[in-house]
Design goal:
The complex is a heterodimer. By secondary structure, chain A is α+β, with helices and mostly antiparallel strands. Helix content of chain A is 17%, strand content 42%. In chain B, strand 9 and strand 10 (216-226) form a beta hairpin. Classes of the chains: A alpha+beta, B mainly beta.
Chain lengths: 270, 401
Amino acid sequence: MKNLSLKLLSRIGIALLAAAILAGGVKAQTPEEQGYEIAARSDRSDRGFFDSFVTMQMVLRNANGQESVRDMTQNVLEVPDEDFGDKSLVVFDTPADIYGTALLSHTKILDPDDQWLYLPALKRVKRISSKNKSGPFVGSEFAFEDFTALELNKYDYKFVGVEACGDLTCDVVERYPRYEFSGYTRQMTWIDNEVFQVRKVDFYDRKGALLKTLNFEDYREYGDGIWRAHTLKMINHQTGKSTDLVFSDFEFGTGADDGDFQKGILTRVR
Amino acid sequence: MKLSLPLLALLAAACLSREAAAAQLGDVSVSGFVGVDTRFFPWDPMLPGQAGNADISLIISPEFRYITDDRKHQFSFIPFARIDSRDGQRTHVDIREAYWLYKGGDWELLTGFNKVFWGVTESNHLVNIINQVDGVEDIDGEDYLGQPMVNLTTFNDWGQVDLFILPGFRERTFVDVDGRFRTPLPVDTSRPIYTSGLGQKHTDVAVRYSNFFGDFDVGLYYFYGTGREPTLVPDGTGTFLLPRYDIIHQGGLDVQYTKDAWLFKFEGIIRQGQGQVFGSFVAGFEYTLYQVFDSASDIGLLVEYLHDGRDATAPVTIFEDDIFFGVRWALNDIQDTSLLVGAIVDPSTSETFFNIEAERRLGDHYTVEIRARFFTGADPGELTFFNSTDDYIQIRLARYF
């Protein structure tokens, strides 16, 4: 009996201690930790998608509203280890003169990505510099880094607050690129707290001025908690140009592996 | 032209909507281009028989591709034709690609005509050897004839290995007597000389290893067979040059080191079978300034040194000890506008070859491409002296479909 009550007491003690630590932990959680946690929950929500295939259309609009269209496909291979980035292959179908042009990226976290460009006219595979992170991707308002940099550990985070975003409530998290050669000093992200997806990003340029806004629309769920936006709208506030990215239905688990993302396959992607 | 049944089926399938075709037949695609080349030569030609200060050509190159539903079998058919207003040799038809590719996972087998490009440098494509140069197309050596081959590729943890069996040799194309960029004596391509008794039927072989190690991309190969570069020898009457094709052994290495905005490049070969064993290399760098002047434009600076160690009995080269300088300006706009200005200089003779290339997309389906080339500083006796009046400007308008 004595033993039992002692045990009970000690259990209560441990529980109280744990609760105190937890409570203290929450209290002591910095905005940085909170921001990271929100970003991590969002990033990890689509863990286990393995690989995806999608066709997409890019609509480029200049300040006068004149449009130009690019059709392409994108294969992505998930690399679950957060210390390594995913692999992706983008192949162009239009404009017709760049049919078959392909960009293969092996994303890294803080090291420069490995990237190869395939030029079909010469059938030449060219390793390209990945310093060009802030350069425009095929003349669009998307920079290379907007296309390939969606890896959790590429940024530092800071929780800013909670805001309504459409019908949802969003956590507002500021993030700061940790990788070299980024064109941004910071990005403000809005992440909903229902399915934890990024709804909006504001990009601030090297001078700290608002450069672009990216809106994620038409989210659809595939399987268990794997969400994909099907319309991405990027607006450049400084030039008035904009680019929409419209996705078809995604295919997941196509059975792709590392072998489908090696340099040697580039000459035969079309 | 009589069309074979599979080709008819391919064309018919191509006419169906993409979805319908994809559902029943796999995936068919038709692309390619039709273009018009116009060249202006400001100077009168130097050699007897050469004529004209302008010419115009029509080029057509459709591309048919088919991939089966299981994505294991891929077919490609790319014919090419040029009809030239003046030069009978420039008017020619070729099959750039006509192959069947089987994808077996970590190995692939390609059978048929194909084009294979190796190398990293810009001023000269030294290590590139599988395909013969289509010499009438352009003087930059970037157009190649389709090569019949059986190509086995294996993908391994330790790199990619390609084995090539190349039955049937493609002879280099040369301009006609009245063409520009001619040798002092015209080349008679109807009387080639082969040092191998098998002649054009000699089966060539090649094996190449390629991989990347961090920031280094590396390719290493060995080739045995008929050398693609002919030695030009006078015929008995001294009125024509005849191309002589020799059996060679060649080893080649290409390396690129990619660091920040720098690309460091090296290509080297060692060849046996044309005079003394010799080595040649191209080495240099490409440095890119991204988003210059707060714009989307990139400016690339290129410098390469070219050295060639061959003796006088080997095919003549213009790249003995030359330096290439180039500036590439890419606007990164919707029209993919770009400009390349380059010069290859021989410091010992001050012979210089200037090259300007500009291109831009017009709308969604057209491109315009301007090329201007100038030759200066060649003394009589230099190989390029006879081309010193062949400066030209070419405008290509192409429609892609």
